[in-house]
Structures are given as C-alpha cells and as structure tokens.
Amino acid sequence: MAVERYAPAMKLRTEDVTWQEIDGELVILDLAQSSYLTTNKTGAFLANLLLEETDEAALTRALAAEYEIPEEEAAADVRTFLEELTALSLLA
C-alpha cells in the first residue's frame, strides 16, 4: 500500500496564478512570484484534475487509467509533479 505524501485534499492555487494550454501542454505562471512551470500532456492532464480538490491517490488512479500504465509508474509521476507544484507554491 502506497503512503500518501501530500495533503488528503489539494488543488491548484488560483490567486495570482494564470495558465494557458497550448497544443495539449500547459504553462502555469505565478504572477506574485514571477515564476512559471511548463508541463507536458501528462502534467496538463494532472493540472486539470487539480482544478478541483483531489488527493494523491485519485490522481494516481486517474493517470494510470488515462495512459494505461501501472499504478506504480503513475504514482511516481504524480509525486514528481506534486513536488514541482509544491516547490513553486502552486498548491492550495
């Protein structure tokens, strides 16, 4: 059983943040900190799920189902993405 490393419920911070999807990829800009994050299609998929409150386990299941990959691989990808969002203070 995987241990969740992040809050049970989280979502993308919306205050002072804007994003634009371009060809399935996403650019997230934090206006307050003048920082940005670009994602691939997988990151864009996860970011769209994070527009509503969700948890790490739900993100992992959704990613595994969407891309037909093992849950262990999806869990590693989700953790990496959440670490990036956390480092940029993009999670609420």
Radius of gyration: 13 Å
Major sheet: 3 strands, antiparallel
Q: State the distance separating the first and last CA atoms.
A: 26 Å
Shape-level CATH architecture: Orthogonal Bundle
Low-pLDDT windows of residues: none
Q: Total helix count? A: 3
Question: What is the average of the pLDDT values?
Answer: 90
Find the count of extended strands (DSSP E, 2+ residues). Answer: 3
Order of strands across the widest beta sheet?
1-2-3
| Approximate shape | globular
The CATH topology is Arc Repressor Mutant, subunit A
Structural class: alpha+beta
- SSE ordering: EEEHHH
Strand content: 15-25%
Instruction: Give the fraction of residues assigned to helices.
Output: 40-55%
- Domain tally: 1
CATH class: Mainly Alpha
Core attributes:
single chain; 92 residues; alpha+beta; Arc Repressor Mutant, subunit A; 3-stranded antiparallel sheet; 18% strand
Task: Report what the structure shows.
- The chain has 92 residues and is an alpha+beta fold.
- The chain has one domain (17-87): Arc Repressor Mutant, subunit A, CATH 1.10.10.
- The protein is 41% helix and 18% strand.
- The protein is built from 3 helices and 3 strands.
- The protein has a 3-stranded antiparallel β-sheet.
- α2 crosses α3.
Could you outline the blueprint of secondary structure elements for this entry?
Blueprint: E1 17-22, E2 25-30, E3 35-39, H1 41-49, H2 56-67, H3 71-87
Antiparallel strand pairs: 1-2, 2-3
Helix pairs in contact: 2-3
